[in-house]
Structure formats: C-alpha cells, structure tokens
Amino acid sequence: MALERTLSIIKPDAVAKNVVGQILSRFEGAGLKIVATKLTQLSRGEAEKFYGVHAARPFFKDLVDFMISGPVVVSVLEGEGAIAKNRDLMGATDPKKAEKGTIRADFADSIDANAVHGSDAAETAAVEIAFFFPEAHIYSR
Ligand code: AMP
C-alpha cells in the first residue's frame, strides 16, 4: 500500500453535534495522521466550486445550502492507503446504508447531513487538498 493523503471534511451537522473530537479520534485510531486541519465556514462560491463535479445533479443546491449552513472542519489525513481507509471509516454515503460502527452510521442523519466528506481517488484528493491548503501548511511527519 502506498503512503497517501486524503481530504476530510467534518460537515456542519457533525460540528453542530459537537462530535469533531470523536470523529478525528477515529482517524487517528485507524493509524491516519492529521497533517493539516482548520475550522472554517465555506462561502456559497467556495462550496459550489468544491462540489462543481455535481453541478448538474438534482441534489446540488441542497448540498451547497447544507455545506454553507455552519462551520466545517477540513483536514488532510495521511497514511498507508489513506483514501480507502477514510472511506471505510466513513461508511456508505447514505447513512441508512452505512455499516454499523462507521462514522455515518453513528453520527449522520440523512444523505445530505451525512457527517463527513472524504476524497474518492488520488486525483481528486490532490485537487481537494490544494483547494484548502497550500503545501507549506501541510505538516507530514
Ligand atoms: P461526494 O460524492 O463525496 O462528492 O459528495 C456528494 C455529496 O452529496 C454526498 O456526500 C451527499 O452528502 C450529497 N448527496 C445528496 N444526495 C445525494 C445522492 N443522491 N447521491 C450522492 N450524493 C448525494
């Protein structure tokens, strides 16, 4: 397995529930390192750009409205197979379908308010990480 980086977003629902620490703990418990992190609130323009790939989908407006509804915690996670590992930890996009013990099964309420985002592939991870963090603000160790 290769050493990878992936972008994680703890979405407004999970920040509002005050479970940021519990979610970050799961990443660390699985051997992922938090090499960059910040609490921020996305503007509509930023959210539309970040989710640009979904612009034509029927859920786009609701997704953007939700993502700007409160602060989010954006992190870069680093580790062996970090992209797949994070996706395993998150569980299925729809929390009703997420396996027991996953972040979405434990903390998410709906497909929009689904607690976390994680990059789906190496190429998207690189683009998503650069969207939020300059390389100089990522602390690999
Ligand atoms: P991603 O697939 O990670 O780029 O994120 C798309 C996000 O859109 C998901 O995490 C969901 O929160 C949201 N979403 C809402 N409805 C749907 C849907 N029908 N299919 C996929 N994602 C959806």
Automatic annotation (TrEMBL):
<keyword id="KW-0808">Transferase</keyword>
<dbReference type="GO" id="GO:0004550">
    <property type="term" value="F:nucleoside diphosphate kinase activity"/>
</dbReference>
<dbReference type="Pfam" id="PF00334">
    <property type="entry name" value="NDK"/>
</dbReference>
<comment type="similarity">
    <text>Belongs to the NDK family.</text>
</comment>
<dbReference type="InterPro" id="IPR036850">
    <property type="entry name" value="NDK-like_dom_sf"/>
</dbReference>
<comment type="function">
    <text>Major role in the synthesis of nucleoside triphosphates other than ATP. The ATP gamma phosphate is transferred to the NDP beta phosphate via a ping-pong mechanism, using a phosphorylated active-site intermediate.</text>
</comment>
<keyword id="KW-0546">Nucleotide metabolism</keyword>
<keyword id="KW-0067">ATP-binding</keyword>
<feature type="active site" description="Pros-phosphohistidine intermediate">
    <location>
        <position position="117"/>
    </location>
</feature>
<dbReference type="InterPro" id="IPR034907">
    <property type="entry name" value="NDK-like_dom"/>
</dbReference>
<feature type="binding site">
    <location>
        <position position="104"/>
    </location>
    <ligand>
        <name>ATP</name>
    </ligand>
</feature>
<feature type="binding site">
    <location>
        <position position="11"/>
    </location>
    <ligand>
        <name>ATP</name>
    </ligand>
</feature>
<protein>
    <recommendedName>
        <fullName>Nucleoside diphosphate kinase</fullName>
        <ecNumber>2.7.4.6</ecNumber>
    </recommendedName>
</protein>
<dbReference type="GO" id="GO:0046872">
    <property type="term" value="F:metal ion binding"/>
</dbReference>
<feature type="domain" description="Nucleoside diphosphate kinase-like">
    <location>
        <begin position="3"/>
        <end position="140"/>
    </location>
</feature>
<keyword id="KW-0418">Kinase</keyword>
<dbReference type="GO" id="GO:0005737">
    <property type="term" value="C:cytoplasm"/>
</dbReference>
<dbReference type="InterPro" id="IPR001564">
    <property type="entry name" value="Nucleoside_diP_kinase"/>
</dbReference>
<feature type="binding site">
    <location>
        <position position="93"/>
    </location>
    <ligand>
        <name>ATP</name>
    </ligand>
</feature>
<keyword id="KW-0547">Nucleotide-binding</keyword>
<comment type="subunit">
    <text>Homotetramer.</text>
</comment>
<feature type="binding site">
    <location>
        <position position="114"/>
    </location>
    <ligand>
        <name>ATP</name>
    </ligand>
</feature>
<keyword id="KW-0597">Phosphoprotein</keyword>
<dbReference type="GO" id="GO:0006228">
    <property type="term" value="P:UTP biosynthetic process"/>
</dbReference>
<feature type="binding site">
    <location>
        <position position="87"/>
    </location>
    <ligand>
        <name>ATP</name>
    </ligand>
</feature>
<keyword id="KW-0479">Metal-binding</keyword>
<dbReference type="GO" id="GO:0005524">
    <property type="term" value="F:ATP binding"/>
</dbReference>
<dbReference type="GO" id="GO:0006241">
    <property type="term" value="P:CTP biosynthetic process"/>
</dbReference>
<keyword id="KW-0963">Cytoplasm</keyword>
<keyword id="KW-0460">Magnesium</keyword>
<dbReference type="GO" id="GO:0006183">
    <property type="term" value="P:GTP biosynthetic process"/>
</dbReference>
<feature type="binding site">
    <location>
        <position position="59"/>
    </location>
    <ligand>
        <name>ATP</name>
    </ligand>
</feature>
